[in-house]
Amino acid sequence: MPYFLWSPELSIGIKEIDLQHKSLIQAVNALYDAFQSEEGERDLSWIIHFLANYTVEHFATEEALMERIGYPRFNEHLRLHEELLQQVGAFLAKFNAGTAGISEDLLEFLKQWLLVHIGSEDKTLAKHVRGL
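Now predict its structure.
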């Protein structure tokens, strides 16, 4: 069973962003699977770097949409993206230096961040888009 399940409640109704959210969840699940598997140790680096890079790409998609529509909460939403990217960057630096690894706490943090961010910020953005 996957660590993190996509559910219809996570859909914000913007196809491109929903697909990206699904990909992020799949990446968290792949990271979990590699973390759980003795053979998966060699995959951890590839998966964590993919997840970090894809997060940047996903945020760029959301930010371009927010700019295009003149989203009134753009700065607040952008700040949340920037905070997560700073945390991810700090973790990656430690991971690449061999001083940090994947843990259950990290996996739970990623899962909860996505659940809260999608359920709150991204759904608010989607409501604004539908109201245009």
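DSSP finds four helices and no strands in the chain.
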